[in-house]
Specification:
single chain, three-stranded mixed sheet, mainly alpha, 207 residues
Amino acid sequence: MSTLDLIAAERLTLADVLGTLTPAQARTPSCCGDWTVHQVAGHLLMPLATPLSRFLGHLVAARGSFARANDRATRAFAERPLPQLAAGLRENARNPFHPPTFGHEAPLTELVVHGQDLRLPLGLPVRFPPEALVVALDMLAGRKARRAFVPAGLHQGLRFEASDVGWSAGTGALVRGPGAALAFAMTGRTQTLDELTGDGVAVLRAR
């Protein structure tokens, strides 16, 4: 499958998940900052359905801070009802958008990471195709990820190994575990660290 095929499959799967959520589940705090599950869902659709001019307006209001603009745009967009967000993901399943200077690996990585941000607090199963995990792991281990996905210095002196998809990268103290949990931890999130093994886990936890 092409990366765009993998993206489409994940958007459709996520839309199905959103369609099963109760209002209380949608209001649950996610693993992504102080966004709710509903807001994380909105974030994944927002760049596909927001005109550039509108986002630039958020950027101006945020005084040039992309992070603050992204937060403002996400919160505004996520005021839409959850069924509307699910329908939007279905309609945009094959939308080819990707951020400037990145390829389709970036939106696929967002689906792998943010897909866990909203599933884990709800106790929902986390399953991704091996091909999608490898693309996301390659992305997170690469230099480009430091621009948006990975805190500076987080991976220094660490070797990451996925126990289920035959993937590895880096050198140093070992961090090993399921590909989805590994990808989540490689962004600096702590919720899946207990699923990982190796001397590098303590290093990653401390950072």
